[in-house]
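Newbie here. two chains, one complex. Structure please?
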Amino acid sequence: MTQTPAVKNAPRHAALGLTDEQAVAMYEKMVLARKFDERSQLLQRAGKVNFHISGINQEPSQVAMAFAMDLKNDWFLPYYRDYAFVLSVGMTVKELMLSLFAKGEDPNSAGRQMPGHFSARRLRIVTGSSPVTTQVPHAVGFALAAKMRGEPSVSLVSFGEGSSNQGDFHEGCNFAGVMKLPVLFVCQNNGYAISVPLSKQTAGRICDRALGYGFPGVRVDGNDPLEVYRVFKEAHERALAGEGPTLLEVMTYRVTPHSTSDNDLVYRTQEEVEHHRAKDGIPAYRRYLTEIGLWSDEREQELLARIRREVDEATAYAEQAGFQPIEDAFRHVYAEDADGEAR
Amino acid sequence: MPVLEYIEAIRTAMKEEMERDERVFVLGEDVGLKGGVFGTTKGLQQQFGELRALDTPLAESAIAGVAIGAAMAGMRPIAEMQYSDFMFPATNQIISEAAKIRYRSNNDWSCPLVVRAPIGGGVFGGLYHSQCPESVFFGTPGLKIVAPATACDAKGLLLSAIRDPDPVLFFENKKCYRLVSDEVPEGEYTVPIGKSNVMRQGTDITVIGYSMPLHFAMQAAEELSREEGVEAHILDLRTLQPLDREGVLAAAAHTGKVLIVHEDNKTGGVGAEVAALISEELLFDLDAPIRRLCAPDVPAMPINPPGEKHFLLNKDKLKAAMLDLARF
């Protein structure tokens, strides 16, 4: 990259319609998610929490896709590595920590579900489960409801490439294609379904499957957040214009084990992991911001200190917070009447 | 009061509720222009348009899953499974998703969904157009399950199911569609979910069941009354989940002799839970061991006529079992 952009050549983010503040905010969310994730791993290793499942290396694309969405009208059905995504649509580190510690104030599930099972109606984040891909038809249902009510809403649903082999993926895509529904199907292809590499999961390209459902499929480099933003913005506009769904295959790599319960060196080499770690999109994006004068070492230090404080405070708060009281633990199987009795 | 066929009562409930509440819509295979393979949704697309009587691709998990998403978004979907035999691809969506959405989100989200599915044999449907899958879903907390035997209850329970804030499985009996007709109040009325109904008052034995076999029990009871002086007390569960505990216990205590009947196979069926409940609460009030008359424990009924006839319950089988219990 050149040191100073020419006046008539706007920086890439500006050419995409992103303000300088948004470009910087994207970077801050990426780093926040990374630091939350690293702390979560430490807490698990220290025996403070039972389980963590990581999204490290997938943050740049997750943040970019969130910035392309309309937070007031769209519906979000993330998957379990989408920390950077949910942080970008309004969830706080404190809330994620409460979920990690399975505490009662956790807005995702009051500490009932494993971490990574995001839910917050106020943020239009739809509750999800562990059997993968069930959320894909749900996203289609949200889009159908939007169409029936004439609302300008788009559903974004994400899943891993392993999930793209489930029947619910095909059934959901096909349904949305037939009805031209406003859905962004987001496959975060990180190369592994736990231990099984992509080459043993599918013989084709996942983005090409869209052809069979009659809508566009796009493959994009997940380490290039501005390119991710561009393709998501386009897909979002198509969806809003009534032109139907888009399948977006975000190419990334899972640098962590599947979860804190997995030993990944049983099925891949450290060299392979390091090769991909070197392509981390966060330092590359930092270089971009620095080169156009939006970032500096001083700002970096200030950001890291601020995030450190935020993560420390969230950790301390979540650690001391209470679990859901036992008398409430088995409530809400069914709707309750005013007296708290199941209806 | 007008007399309606069971299938007409179901259609009327959907039509009236769709007129009353624009959030209500029906989706499934062939439910639109054709009006369903049994005709249950006939006329709805003509009245409400393509979106609200929605022909879907042939994919049951998507029918359930899309309906679940729409329900979470605030709609009131009625998802039709063409035959309950074809419902199993949707089982993950129903059990892992619909049933758990309120609980897993600590009441932040809910899933007001109805899944309608025809159950039962006697139409030469063979293994895969005849099954009763209630026991697969029974015992899944978060689901409500209803299975009406009469036209009146079919309409009233379907209205309750559509208005219920939680997912309801509505098992309608395909043999009842045109065989069963009874008086149905005009206009709006509901039958509460979770309440059983005494179909016949009697003093000698109690028959507890749901759906089609109750009609055999009623016919047998009339003959036993005439021929043997045996008076059967007959309880229609109507709702399988949550079971009407008080209703079951009162009916069992009423005669002290209990016969449980259903077309679903015996092992692990709803009847096992009813029997366990009575045993837990009333064992020393009983005058005879609890009996069950159910379908045999084979995968499903054959299509050949003697095989189907042998598999299914009928008036004579009920009569023999009821008389035997009365004489205990």
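Moderator note: The CA atoms of residues 186 and 334 of chain A lie 32 Å apart. Chain A touches chain B at residues 75, 107-110, 112-113, 117, 119-121, 126-127, 129, 131, 134, 136-148, 155, 167-168, 171-172, 174-175, 178, 324, 331-335, 342-343 (CB under 8 Å). Thread marked as resolved.
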